[in-house]
Design brief:
single chain; Rossmann fold; 3 domains
Amino acid sequence: MSLTNTPAAERLHIGIFGRINAGKSSVINAITGQNIAIVSDVKGTTTDPVYKTMELLPLGPVMIIDTPGLDDEGQLGKLRVQRSYQVLNKTDIAVLVVDGVIGIAEEDNKILNRIKEKNIPYIVVFNRADLVKCKPGLLPGFISVSALTGENIEQLKEEIGKLAVKETNNKRIIGDILKPGDLVVLVVPIDSSAPKGRLILPQQQTIRDILDSDAMAVITKDTTLKETLSKLAQKPKLVVTDSQAFESVNKDTPKEIMLTSFSVLFSRYKGKLDLQIKGAMALDHLKDGDSVLISEGCTHHRQCEDIGTVKLPAWIKKYTQKNINFEFTGGIGFPEDLSKYSMIVHCGGCMLNEREMKYRLQCAQDQNIPIANYGVLIAYMNGILKRSVEPFKDLAELFCVV
């Protein structure tokens, strides 16, 4: 996969924060060497977080997030500030831009404290060094620059690069359980919800990780799995299926071949699979009138057979035989207060970066609300959760799933 085609969720997310007219956009343009952010003397030019995917040497593919000013005023201004704080949930590295002429203000300290609470690597940038005659020595984690003259901009990029090394995700989707020469069969149903002419992102990323492991991938539909397995000269190490076809694929896959789903793989890759296994078991304790939140990390056109809003609610009602209330969120709309819900069911999070996915899981864990992703829950409802985590021996041994 070329750097320019790196999915947004796999890019390092660099959040740029600061007060109105501290020079956030100017610093972004200086770092990138491009005019990607609008610069103006008019207060509050940036009214919503602006996301820009790009290549930033020597970091590689990144997502730069320019946020509204932290001291915006009025009712609308408060909403904009709230949006800025929400960006922290997906920020891998935070850059706090301070007007070097004025110095650190109350708003800067507030967000800096929140950044520290969330354990986000950060650097504080005092901009407009060209206007400051007396430049005091700065502590580690602080740097003085001039976006206008370019002073210390290269040093700033180097410091961000050092933080980026600490944040690099070396986890694998599937490669860590494969050996060179292993064969993996991927089951990809083609139905009304499948994107015409292409595979969805988790399928693409899994294929790439298999190839990076010097293993082999065979791709088939759920309706041709049996035939595919019968024609293979080598027994597959693993079958990976779309979760919606878990039931039929389980029947068609011999017990001596391990089975899991793309969604389970991504639960492990971006989150806490053990937490979500426990969350799935909460399904047995739902009562009439309980509310379940079904949340997705992306926004897309809902179809008549949509898994989140149609299939999952039907399957949950059938499994529990209870009268359950369902609520739905998509994109950035994940509630902070989860107390009204008895359970949360989340998508695999392919469009969310790891930090945001873990933030959502932590929100649920902190409020003692069980959470499971689509694949884990579907496997549990079909009685095959234990089989679906068999490839991950530590989990298979840790949980006695029946």
